[in-house]
Amino acid sequence: MSNMTFNFFNQPLLLYQKIKQHYHENNSPPPNLLCKISRDSPLLRQPIDAKPIHISDFWLDRQRNVNIGREAFKYYDHQSFASKQNIDFHLSDGIATFDPRPLDEGLTNILSYILKVTQPNTPLKQAVSNADFVCFRGTLTALAVTPYSRDDTGFKFVITKFHGVFFIMQLDTDAILEERANESKRSKLLTYWGQKFETFIFAAKGETPDTKSPVSTWIETLGCFSMTLSPRTLERPLNVFYVAEIDGLDKSSMSLSCLFLTCIYFHFSWKIY
């Protein structure tokens, strides 16, 4: 491990800017970045032990400042629906005032979190729970499903090594950019429905869901996790530090996925307007 300490890594945008600059100057990803793997590869048939360990939580305010803890987290409002057999969710209401956050923040928020919680002169490896890789959960998902994907929009990653740790940032492919530029009204509506749905089922602690205020995604709640991947084909396990958005918490403060709750509600008779 490098004897350089975390104190030298004093600019949260440094890594992100370095990655973007390299990419744009060369008009292509750095050399030796991409690899090719067959669906028939024995690597894909190896069992992998992967047990995520929850480290901590943080949230981003409208100015995208990092705040440690769960102050802004919302909770699943089970009582509001416990006795209902028919649920009417007006998911199209308020779409004209939808206020989405930017999509191109890269790794900035992860880096800002690391800086926020780490004491000066702490080795970077220690700051990220001895991880080999740092990324968002969505990046892990994209990597994991890639060998099985067909006719999708592809993927593009930039990976840079800093003080012994590989930082992985996902970039938009040309296909994704084209798809976004030509996004239909129907597709935008479906995206909004997902965000509006959360306002019906989650609420601030001790409160009831607020379905009247404009829907905004600027305030973001996230969890930090470490995970060890132990495929038999590797000489040693790989440690990953990743950050994932948390839709909400249940009454025991366990994280919940809005997608999971959507499946639950389809067991009811419900309407979408």
TrEMBL record:
<dbReference type="GO" id="GO:0003723">
    <property type="term" value="F:RNA binding"/>
</dbReference>
<dbReference type="GO" id="GO:0000956">
    <property type="term" value="P:nuclear-transcribed mRNA catabolic process"/>
</dbReference>
<keyword id="KW-0547">Nucleotide-binding</keyword>
<dbReference type="InterPro" id="IPR013961">
    <property type="entry name" value="RAI1"/>
</dbReference>
<dbReference type="GO" id="GO:0046872">
    <property type="term" value="F:metal ion binding"/>
</dbReference>
<comment type="similarity">
    <text>Belongs to the DXO/Dom3Z family.</text>
</comment>
<keyword id="KW-0694">RNA-binding</keyword>
<dbReference type="Pfam" id="PF08652">
    <property type="entry name" value="RAI1"/>
</dbReference>
<keyword id="KW-0479">Metal-binding</keyword>
<keyword id="KW-0539">Nucleus</keyword>
<protein>
    <recommendedName>
        <fullName>Decapping nuclease</fullName>
        <ecNumber>3.6.1.-</ecNumber>
    </recommendedName>
</protein>
<comment type="function">
    <text>Decapping enzyme for NAD-capped RNAs: specifically hydrolyzes the nicotinamide adenine dinucleotide (NAD) cap from a subset of RNAs by removing the entire NAD moiety from the 5'-end of an NAD-capped RNA.</text>
</comment>
<feature type="domain" description="RAI1-like">
    <location>
        <begin position="51"/>
        <end position="210"/>
    </location>
</feature>
<dbReference type="GO" id="GO:0110155">
    <property type="term" value="P:NAD-cap decapping"/>
</dbReference>
<dbReference type="GO" id="GO:0005634">
    <property type="term" value="C:nucleus"/>
</dbReference>
<dbReference type="GO" id="GO:0034353">
    <property type="term" value="F:mRNA 5'-diphosphatase activity"/>
</dbReference>
<dbReference type="GO" id="GO:0000166">
    <property type="term" value="F:nucleotide binding"/>
</dbReference>
<dbReference type="GO" id="GO:0004518">
    <property type="term" value="F:nuclease activity"/>
</dbReference>
<dbReference type="InterPro" id="IPR039039">
    <property type="entry name" value="RAI1-like_fam"/>
</dbReference>
<dbReference type="GO" id="GO:0005829">
    <property type="term" value="C:cytosol"/>
</dbReference>
<keyword id="KW-0540">Nuclease</keyword>
<keyword id="KW-0378">Hydrolase</keyword>
